[in-house]
Amino acid sequence: MLSEYEAIYFHLMERKSTLLDLREQWPILDIDRTLELCRQFGVRHPFRGPYPEPLTIDFLITEMVNDSVTHRAASIKTPSDALDPEIRRRLAVEHAWCSERGIPWTLVDTSAFTKTMLATLRFMRTWFSNRYEPDQDRAARFSEYFLGEYGTNILLSELIRKTARLMCINEAEAQNLFRYCAWSAHLDVSLTHQLELDRPLVLRDADT
């Protein structure tokens, strides 16, 4: 990713069950039209030497919505960049090009994105990099036992240890199960609190 904001959005989209594909820095190869739109909006089109380069959209998202495959575009900017007049003119070019082709375009509100949110998402996603193969029945059972042991003042490592004993599994598997359950929303973990083994876990319904 080109920025932490993009990484956060990428992980948030990854968690959606409707997601089919997520392409970062998707190039608009219709350069003749983007040159025209840049002139219209007073934007300098990117060039490499004498040759125009494609404009890129931060994300092109493909989802299954109401049994239909849909596409939409999303641009990710910091809150300050989103207010910059020059950047807004550049975004207007993206929006106009997408509108002409019937592609919904959104400037994502990143005001709630934080380093803590990114760290929490990465912590949860480790189940994937550990090559854990999820099982939905096992995940549902883990979540049930885990919530039965949950307390706001209990360290996450202790909650995982207790749940592992109840399920008669080792702690390594229990950790991967927890990360997967948090990632897939079997457990509704707060994204605004630090998620670490040596800290108490904050669930969203207990979020303050």
UniProtKB/TrEMBL annotation:
InterPro entries: Restrct_endonuc-II-like, TnsA_N, tRNA_endonuc-like_dom_sf. It comes from the Bacteria. Residues 19-109 form the TnsA endonuclease N-terminal domain. Pfam families: Tn7_TnsA-like_N. Transmembrane segments: none annotated. GO terms for molecular function: nucleic acid binding. This is TnsA endonuclease N-terminal domain-containing protein. It comes from Dechloromonas denitrificans. The lineage of its organism: Bacteria, Pseudomonadati, Pseudomonadota, Betaproteobacteria, Rhodocyclales.
